[in-house]
Records
---
Amino acid sequence: MTKKILVIGGGPAGLEAARSAAELGGEVILLEKRERLGGTPDREGYAKLTHHWRDASEAMAELAAAVTSNKNVEVKYQAEVKEISGSAGAFNVKIEAGGKAESFDAGAVIVATGFQHFDPGRATQYYNYYSFPDVITLTDLEKMLKEHKVVRPSNGEAPKKIAFIQCVGSRDRQIGNEYCSKVCCGIASKQAIEIREQLPDSKVMIFYIDMRMYGYWEPEIYWKAQEQHKVNYVKGVISEVLKKGDQLLIRGEDTTMSRPMEVLMDMVVLSVGMEPSAGTRAVAQLAGVEQNKYGFINAGGASGLDPSATSKAGVFVAGAASGPSDLDDSIAQAGLAAARAVASLRN
Amino acid sequence: MTEMTTVEEILERKSHSVIRDAEVAPTHDIREALYELEAKGEIIVQRVPENHVEVTTKYGRTKKIPIDHTWHHKSCGQCGHIPGYTSSIFWLHRQFGLDYIDPTDQTSCTGWNYYASATSNAAAQAAVMSRNFAAAYETGYFPMIHCGTSYGHYKEIREQLVHRKELRDEVRRILDKLGKPLVIPEEIVHYSEWVHVMRKKFAERQTVSFAPITATVHPACHYYKIVAEDAIYDPEIYGGQRTATVTATLEALGINVADYSTWFDCCGFGFRHILVQRDFTRSFSTLRKIEVMKNEVNPDLTVTHDTGCVTTLDKSQFSAKAHDRNVGIPVLSDAQVAALAMGAHPFRVVQFHWHSTDWRPFLDKLGIDWKKYWDEFQGDLDAIRAGTKSGITWEDADKPVIYG
């Protein structure tokens, strides 16, 4: 097999797709926009991975090493796709890597350009992320947890009371993101446990519409958070975050008790969801594959049963480029995309 | 270069203005759909006049705001309860010699009752809007909407008309009977957007200093929450996090704009509440808005840009005052503030006497001898009573006064 497989994106899905395709005998060119591999978990400084609790840096380094040590994979850093022409089995790709223009042929393309976290400033500012230093996001907190330094940005002190607000930028028709981002409930619960481990005197509350704890997250995270770490889950909708003295007042409705509530907090964590990355939007256009109304790449193919298939033959998708996805599913989808890409060239 | 700590990174990110990219806007650009319908011969799209200014809206798109050649879609509540609001808008136009029409064949949008679940149906609502737009189109002037309710309501109807052929057909059937075409303007424009783009010109002609004044801003829900992508945003104002209208105008006029925690709350009007649960409106308006402003920043003035907001914030304060609550902030629209800045007569034009919260300390602070102007106004009334004058005209009101 002499035709190459182009993998776009060096995050978990792209790394797994490149590794699997190479192990199946494919010759792979992997494009990464940054100077290093590891994607969003690396760039955003993730601490532990949900649900195996592995150190994120360590896990990403393993995935990267499996690719860089494989002689069938050529990694191009600081690389961006400029044009994709041709059709299945005979694509021509123009890129810019390290400031230089290049062009090569590829038989198949795997798009693994991932997601970006929802910017809480994109919609109405009910939660005042940009106004109050102590309103942070899951990703902000993840970095603090990694450094074992969870503090209030306003004063550098350890927070005593921390609230998570779920579904920020997800399941929200007002802002056009009707979908569930799948991972935020698990991540918030994981982070709540980590906070309680690092700050045993703290109180942690999670305000949710409903907790979506897929598969083993239920026993591994959800019940563990409540039973072992005394994390308090409150079913309710938070309408606003206000400042009161040097604390944050969160107002909303406790839907279980059917009554309004006000709670004072030291720090509020917004569980921001997923949106397609700028790379996903751009590459989808260049590759000519259909996107859904949110900008993610439509996957499923004609049968609806192939999560790696796009609307265009020879172009496959892996990971959060096709919609909100956790790491396990991204990796699985990447393996499938690799198998399909290799098979398409053999046929 | 020293690496930033996580906290420094968070604070640095929050210190940046938001620059939005229209390419990734979460909503479709309705104007493209309008042009498509026009190409199919289904509707007429009335173009914004040549003399316009382009502004940036919430998701980074561009919106054209006409400067003149405008057809003024007035507000029932402004004309009925706070007429100085409407006369200030016209006065400002007249100061710059801008060409406009104050039509006499415009109807209510009926939006207030619609939002209060009180009347009507989709076809009737859309037909009312379309008749008004057709009336504007027939004059060749571009509609400029004074009322926030009408502005928000029309934008919702525009969505319905664009997306539902059956509704378009039904409305066309009604308009055929009236002998009018189905017209949708290229942009739906709120007067406060015109005030926004004119703000620097107002400042150039400002004759009274607002330096001693601290004001709070209440952004109108119907302006920036309904069909949110149409509202003006500017990275220079609140870092692009909130709509720039009103605040940018006040800042251009040298007013110190102070922030308060419940800026995003409704004024209390709430449409349904003001009609069927007025006590709730009064409580919300005074306890959630006015008292919060008072406690947090104690402003000289609060400024907004919609009929319901001015009336509710202003005229609710009497009830809270009766309960010794911490209220007492005069309420004006941005147009009234701009007119006052340029020397509009406090009573012939701005018409403070229709506002119920005590505005005298505010005028005192500006050094405006309001008693003198009140006497002039009283003289007008005496003349009308005596039959020597039929009413106050632009001849009485056009000339800016040099406050003393």
Note: Residues 382 and 389 of chain B are 9 Å apart (CA to CA).
---
Amino acid sequence: MDFSYTPDQLEIKELAMKFARNEMMPKAQEYDAKAELPHEILEKAWSLGLVNTCIPVEYGGNGFTAVDSMIITEALAYGCMGMNTAIMANDLALLPIVIGGNDEQKKRFLTPMTEKYKMAAFCLTEPANGSDAAGIKTSIKEDGDDVIINGNKMWITNAGYADLFVLYGTTDSSLKHKGITAVVIEKGTPGIELGKKEDKMGHRCSDTRAVTFNNVRVPKSNIIGGLNKGWSIAMKTLDHSRPMVAASAVGGAQCAFDHSVKYAKERIQFNVPIAHHQAIQFMISDMAMKIEASRLLVHKAAWLLDSGLPNTQLASYAKAFAADSCMQITTDAVQIYGGYGYSKEYPVEKIMRDAKLIQLYEGTSQIQRLVIAKEIFTR
Amino acid sequence: MNIFVCVKQVPDTETKIVPSADGTFIETSSIKWIMNPYDEYAVEQALLVQAANAGSTVTVVRVGSSKDTEALRTAMAMGADDAFLVEAADNLDSYSIAKALKGAILKSGKTPDLILTGKQAIDDDCLQVPQILATMLDLPSVSVVVEYTGTASDITVKREVEGGSLEVYGVKLPAMIACNKGINTPRYASLPGIMKAKKKPLTTLSLADVGVSDADRRVKYSNFQLPPEKPPGKKFDATDAAKTGAVVKEVVGLLRTEAKVI
Amino acid sequence: MAKILVFTELHGAHVKGVTLEILGKLSGHTVEVAAIGKIPSEATADLAKFGAAKVHSLNGAGLDKYSPEGYANALHTFIAAGSFDYVFAGATSLGKDLLPRLATKFDAGMASEVTNFVMEGDKFAGTRPLFAGKCFAKVELTGPKPHFVTVRPNALGMNANPTAGAATAADAAVDAGTIRAMIKEIVKGTSEKLDLTEANIIVSGGRAMKDSANFKVLEDLANVIGATVGASRAAVDSGFAPHAMQVGQTGKTVAPSLYIACGISGAIQHLAGMRTSKVIVAINSDPDAPIFTKADYGIVGDLFTVVPLLTQEFKNLLGK
């Protein structure tokens, strides 16, 4: 069992962390305050190969393993969880195409993403259906060589800038998961109506909107895997995307932790640095253990994926554990900073606000526990 | 043009430096090794000159122990074409390093038109290797260069000296140019670049291969120690108008003789 | 007794101070001094006072401006002819650039920028900082002679009472040889100050500045000691200085050799931006200001009285 990174992975991590420190961190608070998308930073990340890590080599990608992509995601989230969400959302949207698309679709949709920086948006959640994903109502109706899409999507990351929408709808909502269908819609297709940008607690630089699809017509050649075949593609996507989101929680937690350790050595109270007080030491120790455990779960989930082994259970372990740990760790970071942690002058309150989302998207921490229990009890 | 860049791998600036138990060097077991920051400017400058002179090659050379994250690979990921590593301890003196670099350059079979390096390595801060290597190869050299302009063989470089003044040099290549911060903005190694670099040639040589031995050491270090603890701060009362002048005089004197910052 | 040459650079009618610091450490040895160019008689007198036995002015075509090759070629023949055991120079811009090249012409080694040294009999033993000053080591030289040493200016200190001596002055003709890198012009340092993050010396003002116009007092000091002016968040928030000057948690992080905090209380946000300064001087009328716990030298007093006095005192010290 080799827990060490390969020399390649060390180089990848070094580059990604360098980018996070030099390009993302100095601007993170500014873009969070303005709630603006940092186009230049995202494009620079893309130019260095840090975006779209799921695209295979044959379609212009860099040939990264799942573990490689976790390392990159953790580093970018260390820089700014919000900017990382805008970057990671591309993979969330493209993975269904990588997993279920045919060669023609991969060439048509994936390759252009490697030639110019474009954003993609993954559309599953609806105003009335979040955790109950199988109950989505957006309809996909056949019409000759096309399908027509009607419905409302909610909380769509990158919506305002996406060149590609990868949408899950249903041919017949009474079929539940058996009717779920995945389809690609290109920007500019008539009928895509963007809502206003949501004003969020965290990940504020990331563009999140409601999107209405009003009689949107796309050719059947845009359907991924065939009509009614979307659910299994969605499930396989989660096996990759849940560990990725978990990796971002590790990165955010690590950043908050590093800030806290530094502060604890500098802040003097009762005549000593607070790092000498047990209450602080216990918090820091718990934070450290949780980060390491979260990272190990992420890596194992990714390793299983790379090995072609089932990883659904581990993916949920990683997502739930890393998300919940990140929330605790970032809350404790603010605690360690005391009053200063509560001020926007210091970096930790932003990371705490950012942490909350990880417990919510890509399957809430409660849904992860249902998935885990199901895996355990149906063996 | 045959362009060479000499790089060194040094402890990361955040590293806690601890003298080794026997005082002959520092503890290296938990060090994070990075490309010497000033050498990054040299690699970037080499790539810029290469881009302006079609058909040029950029060869990177390093003397030191092999590392998990190899700076030569990073340089190739940035765009350098090939690399030579002379395997050696990380605490050779400047003379030995320069001689080893010379040997590696000769082994490449390419005659250098331009050699670039950083003005200093941030580990031993000796600022000697560029000048020693240039002299060993009988080349002119200019160091602390903050601007590089010109065509293939006729260049103009600006050298920073005391007081913020700039000496503007006209140089006929071949030459050694040692770079300072400000000469350019080093590019990141992109991830595709990192992947491509794996296939670029990295030749490993021994000190014997380049004709360097212990007999080449010119500078001996011993008794590595942490700097003395800062004395507790001194506080002076200047509230009494009569005393203020004397207090000021004393503090200024201490800044010169004790703190040695003026 | 070693035969030692100290290479010096001219500074108006005198030589650079570091030369005299070096001479002060070499009593008991045969010490000669050489410069490229004519050494004025006042300088010769200084050098004699500090222990130089002989002073050489080296002259030749092509040596009116510094060039690494020209100076190295010129000194090479001169030094070889003199059979010196050691060659010392100040670790100035020129010294740091010239001496390694010169040493290599003798296949010899050089100790860079020592902050102290002794001559143990005829043998040199120095101390120098490494890893940006995070540690110090003893340094010795081995191999072909002469051995070369550069010395950091202001590190040794100057002998307060140099013993009088007489020195003979001589001129020597030297050959600059072939020069392939030549100075075409020199652009004098502009009055443009270094950015705060690059500055070696910073003078900062806090809330006690009371007015943006009062920052002139700090600028006067900064001009004398070559510093960049900064400000605390309190001063910026009060409109006394622009945000670009702010040092601290939400401003710039700086790491100068010397940080002079004027009328700054030393709140944790400010310390976050300057705590790694090598030497901190604090001026504040409140003796309990937190900054005094971090200051190496604290002056309790009114900055409007103290700072102008500092400016004058530095002017005297630096001969401005």
Note: Chain B has two domains: 2-216, 228-262.
---
Amino acid sequence: MVYSVVEIDKPMRILLVEDEKKVADIIVRGLKAERFAVDVCHDGQSGWEAANTYNYDLIILDLMLPGLSGTEILERVRRKNQSVPILILTARDGMADKLKNFEAGADDYLTKPFAFAELLVRVKALLRRGPVSRASVLRVNDLEIDRLSQNVHRAGKRIELTAKEYALLEYLATQPNRVFSRTMIIEHVWDQSFQGLTNIVDVYVRHLREKVDDAFPVKLLRTVRGVGYSLSDGTEA
Amino acid sequence: MNTRSISFRLVAWYAGLLTTIFLLLCAVLYFDLRYFLENDLRQAQSRRARQIANTLLAHVKQSGETYVVSQTKDWFEPEINDRFIRITRGDGTLVYVSGTPQDGSFDSAEIPILAPAQTTEFSHKLKLSGGNTLLIAALNFKSDGNPDYLVEFGALLDPVESMLDHLFLQLALGLPLAVIIITAGGYLLVRRALTPVEQITRAAERITQFNLSERLPVAQTGDELERLSVSLNRMITRLDEAFQNSQRFVADASHDLRTPLTILRGELEHFAGDARLDAELRERAGSLLEEVAHLGKIVEQLFTLSRLDAGEAQTEWTRFNLAELAQTTSEQMNLLAEDKGIAISCEASQPVAVNGNRVRLKQVVVNLLDNAIKYTPQKGAIQLRVFASNGHAVLEVVDNGIGIPAAALAQIFNRFYRVDPARSADAESAGLGLAIVKSICTAHGAEVEVQSAVGQGSCFRVKLPLALD
């Protein structure tokens, strides 16, 4: 079988190997809602067999599995020289573990407990193999973000932002209507040392709101309680 | 020199004791010899006096006094032998007195005539004007039918005295020398005996929570020190086990909590994001999600601690400028402070180079600043200072906030410790921020201390070793 053209109508097929049935359920439900086709295996052996038998567009692997461990599956898949992207899910996030799995050929790494939004962003990034949007100008409703000059305009009016405010707004604008968790924002806009300091995001969003939304009737920055923030393009309720 | 150290005290006791014994011994030797020699001399003189009395004076009636005098001269030749001889009658008149000896050591005329005494034999010492001492033995001679006589026989005490003086000098010079040799020898011996203690101490000081698998050196000598190091090693083994258990517990607990948290979070996100459900239900799900996020944060921090316990902060060390790190961090957190109307002033203009894990040390600055912002009321002020002092890089975070009660200061760095469990500002934190700070500092060989006064503010100070050029 030769794939010369990506078939647009054909859903992307994802293999999920996760022994915790409830965790698997949540991921499957979420991915299906995003129109992915998902196969689930609950142990290492059947996971490896499925990965060996079918051609998947992406494999999501839990590390702690009965039978064959996630790392072993990862190594076997890579030994067969498969270029399928692999996302690791784990309850351990020590630097050493992370490095070991990246060396074994993992493409990305997500630590439990994660927000589904984080998983989805990573899945989509892996499937597209590249940044979500490379456009030099992002447009969300009447907001315009020029990524080259870092200028922001709303309804033609220039908005002055600090560097961090700009980074935050640009990050939210890469996927309008998508909810970003505070952890995702911290990791993207700040760095690891700010982990656990999620209230800093709230303060920045409030400042961003004053500059971007206060003067306009349509509010673009949305708070989803307990989940995070999104930049709405005004099409969703 | 440490006057309380075992080696000092042992040597001091030992030297003191030996010196005392030596002094006593010397004194006994000196005085006993003195007594013996004087006594010996005295007996020799009285023997001669008796000789004159018994052999010559006993027959004075037949021989006459002149014979006694000439015989005495013949026998003793007092002028040649440096002797003093005098014979007086019972009424005090002189029969004979020896002349001044040839070396002129005394003048016989100078020696006073004694009043007749009741005792038969006696002796006395006479200090002469020339500085010499004469030991004189006297004998009252009484016999029936003869007149009474007093026979005095004297000899110079000086040979005895000069011998004793010589002995005294020898002892006075020898004793300090002996004490010095004894003390030095004792010190060396004690040092040798205590060297293993020194080694054990140094090895014990090197052991921290990160190398509990190391053991102290055990000298195979079969002595008390071997027993000490063996039992210390057993104690370290038990510590190691206890530490590993608690570390494993934290690691396992934070690990095992992650899966249920993932499920809770995933399910609640579904509710919160499902537009078909009514708004209040979604709001409730959101509220629960906030709690799940809080739980997640605690688990995350516990996990961070367990990784720090396992020595994570001791990897990926680089050399960097702490002042610059503090500056950028305070800029990044400035908005958080401004939000409460708090001004952060950063005094870190001079570069201060340190070695360490940059990410983790940044977390120290973040946590300390976050803490200061949390416990400083509106319109307060926070100072962040970085400077070099006495070979240390010092980082200070000073606030004028609510402060910490003295009773809580000692526990402030303990895990899950809260000054006031009811305090609302604490509600969203896990009580692990300062424990993480402490753990990172320990891993860097740094000290962290706090000074505080309730109502006036707190000062957290981190002292790191400076990076050497």
Note: Chain B touches chain A through 54 residues (CB under 8 Å).
